[in-house]
Design brief:
The protein is 17% helix and 41% strand. It contains 13 helices and 84 strands. Helix 5 crosses helix 8 (950-996) and helix 10 runs parallel beside helix 13 (1098-1111). The chain is elongated and about 145 Å long.
Length: 1217
Amino acid sequence: MCFFFSLLPDVSSYAARIGHNADSLDVVNTAIGCDFYVYDIHKLANGGYEFCVKTLNPSSFANFLLWDQGVLVNQTTDPIFCYTTSTPYITIQQTNTDSTYCTLSTVFTLDEECPRLSNITVDNCTKNISFDLNLKYKAYLDFGDGSVIEVFDWLGSLNVSHQYSNNVLYNVCITYDNGETMQYCCYPIDLSMCTNSEFTPVIDTLSTSCLKPLYHEIPYCGRSSCESIWEYEDGTVYYGHTRPSHYFTNFVNADDSVWIKHTVICCNDTSVTVKKVPHKNAAFIGTPGVITNLSDTIQWSDGPDPLTATFYKMTVNDFILAYSNNPNLPLLIDGTLNVDINASFGTGQWNMGKGSEIVVEGKGLRLSNVNIWSAVNLGVGYAACCDNEYTWFGIRSEGISRIIVSECTISNALVALHYPGLSVTNSNFPKLSVINTSLLGNMFALRNENTPLNITGFSGNFIRGRQDCICTCDVVNALDFRGKNLAVVFPGGETNEILQYEQGLHSENTSVTLRNFYIHDLDNYAPITPWPNPSDDYSKIGVYFQNTGDFEGNSALTLENCNFNAIPNNDEVMRVGVKVSLEAGGHTLTAIGDTVTESIIMKKTNNGYAINVENGAQIRGEISANKIYTSDPVNSEGISLEMRSQNNQLNIQNNIIDVNGGTSLSMGIKLGSLNEAVQKIRAIGNKVSLASNTAEGNAIRVDNCEEVVVKDNFIYSNSETPCIEVTQGGNSDINCNYVEGGRIGLKIDATWDNNIISNSFFNNFQNGLYANGKCIDTKGSKIALNSFDYNYNESIYYDIMCNTGRQWHDGYNMFYNQNGDNEVIHIGDEEFVKMCAFHINPASVLGSVTYPDHDPSGIILNKTVKPYTHIVFSCSPGIDEPGNKLYMDNVSIYERYAGILSDTALALSVTVAEYGHIKQSVMDLIARNPDWLLSNSVLSDFYAAEQSAFSGKSAEIIGLFRAFQHITGVQQEHLQVLRDSHSVVQTEILSLMATLDTLTNPTAIISTTLLIEDLQQQAAQVMTVLDSLRSVYDTLNTTALTALAAANGSLSASEDFQVWEQDMNNYSIKLLKGEPLDSAELSQIRTVASECYRNGGKAVLDARILAVTCLKEYYSVESCAEPPGGAGMPSQNHEKLYIYPNPVRDLLNIRMGADINASKAELRIYDLTGRLQQAHQTFVNTSTDITIDISGLPEGIYVAELKASDSSFFEKFIIQR
């Protein structure tokens, strides 16, 4: 392998090293005594070697013998020969005329570290060279011109000179021999001369600039050692025969061309050539990949040629000021423009090249009325400024910068304003002010990564993404903040408008206060690099506030004067107004608006607020006086709060929530806990409406929550679903609500010990209150002072399994505009009826507002029996202590449960799944009240029989879930103490930092600095402890969940309802672990949620909760596969009209109750205006259902009347296709 290097100004070499090896040949003398040497050693591409051998004494030379790995491969009498070998192992023998010989065995290895020549002098004119050698070994020197080889066998410094005869390129080669190895080095010496200065300018295709060509000059002389000077119109000068390609930059061009001057000087001869090449007219600054400082001084010439040119000189800062306002000579910026001095620019347009950026390096930059955008906007000739993904990088802050942008436009950047990671140890954070500025077509308008940032102003800005992009047109987030323990505050002012991004604000582990923003017209765009877009499910989000799980401290999101909307005057909707996703840490959400001024309003969204709190996090705060209008046709939710931790505290009050659409899921306020847990949530004073008659969901829904307050809400629903629905959980208040419309006013399902007081249920399509399952734990649910007015069917309907606890109190419920039939009904067993019975004043008259018709007779008793509770209650604001604390029965609670278990008729009246839920509930109660076993033999016998059965073991699983929630709640309390401690220290640090900036006394500065350092150390220690404790808790919780999964897996489940419950438990465990559910598991949830409660028991309730959370689908009693027997549809022992399915498409099934006393009946169908739509004569036959074809009726709500003898029976149904 051969290497050639330029002699001037450095001399390098190419080399090979020869190693001596002993072999079996006789060695007459040592290698140093041999009269030949090896040179020109090159390694070949195939791994072999090429080399030459030359004798030093041709007169006595006879021949050469060459062995390759011991095999004789060559014999020659030539004094010089070259050979190619496949291996580096050779042996050479020179035989002389006197029969003496010398043998050299070698191993070739390449080595580029040759000794350097020093003090080199080359005189092209005299052709004389000289240099110094520092010899450590014997050396053979060949000057390459055929002259006699010189041998130097002494050590030390040596000056060598040589006279050449021609002006050509020579190689001076030296073989160094230390007796063991031989090193061969060659040094090129260029004496060639060419005095022709002609050259050919060409445009280099490797140019990385979209603003200007990259010129490369090919000189006429292929090689020359003459002095060569290249001069350019932009003031650049290069020396040397060859030169790098050149961008004309840091100059102004106005004549469509630039000149290049080449001067060649050889001895006494000089040649000059000047040529002009085409070039754009513009003011050019910077070079791709090169940093240009504002403080740099640049100089250039302006003229048609070097002789007439005028030369200019100024700083880059002054150049931009001078040349940014001429549209005929646009300012074009390439590479990195570094703001290394405090600078201010007013008016002008900056056109940025591909890959360029502006860096503010710890200085101040003020921009006023400046337009900064991609040069591609200039049109023809600048199309190359569009890259596949982006045009220019944007403005990047480094260090403690101060950036003020006013009345400007910044467009087409990857990040218009970028703050990458910065460690700050004082209060002098980077400062940013952006006022009345347009940020257009940038992939990010403002992005911050771990940089403490003081936003001193952000007002009146217009931030638009997609419409203003000019290349790929894919954008990400308008505002993007990612950093631990950071707080960013937008100070407010005139409204800032954000549109056409995937997310308006994206925040990870960063506290944000967002003031005065209008965010709308968001969409989903294609992925880009270097930062990928959010996934499809995380696009079209106004504000996304996220804790990713790797920050355990506190953070906060505060909204003030924020308006969220989809595409105005378009059917598109925003996916979520505000999405909060928390995996760790303690967080505060504050969104306090004003419904009069509409300071926080959301329109045309799927969700107003979508809040998800994982097991390792907690949320607190307030959402109040917001206006939320949702309008997605499939999933439409106002405020959704999904919690997997407990003790979350959020006030949701005085909001106006209007839900439209939602054929799959429609929710005004949804409060869901994955498992039963204390959640201190308050939903107070809200106005919630469900406008669509096809909506599937609730105005307010509460799942698995304890100690929740739902109070003073005004609710209107046009939906065929319950207005308020509470499933499982308990110890909560549902008080003082006005509820109008909806299929049911309030539906409670296996939720216990609640207060249901002073609510008004008006004009509900079927029932005011529907209750199912065990609604008592140890106290019972207090149902008092409620008013029921003009409900289509029963005002209070107790399904077959309902047990609320006895109502022995004087908080009489009021029943107005009674329907002429039973207002209160219980279709269950006598034992359940006893445990739900109301006691009223004996003086009440049947049919009065306090003593309505009812069935059976035991559900309302007009007598007062002690103990009797006097109800003192007011709807006025006060301290809420949710849940019923009074047991209102003269029979102990455990005796009531013993009575249920002793009732054989009850066991026969319900399904296996329903009775299994009863047994499981009692087993769970006994586990929490073991003293009952000592007081009642029925309970003790039952417990002994069921302890190892499914009811007993599944109750243990319920207990394990409850214990896990309690333990993690305690863990969160411990963690929150540390979080709050860390926040206190951080606040004190910031206060001291602000003080430090004002101090002038050296002693005070030192003491304050030391105090800050001490506090910073304390904060770091607290965070270390916090992270360590969280890690310990995570390990413990993982172990606990693994044990819970094992216990659930060991359940012996044989019946379908048991298998389903086991499945639902498993899914809850996976979600608590943070694991997603797969498609098969989601399908199983849908299957079980579609079942009737009587077929699936508790599993159906659990599945319906999971369906709302994981599938965004609503299932109810009416959703189950068989005709419902509840929710306003009594059992077959009562005079009623049965209609199913409901909603219906084309064929309506009619079933009549057994007590209808007539041989014939007439069925009439009316629309809601009272107009008769169909009439059918039919025979009464209670054993056969009748099918009516209604395919000719349009979609809508209808009322069916069954008229038999002198009685009429009514039922409401929906036609939906």
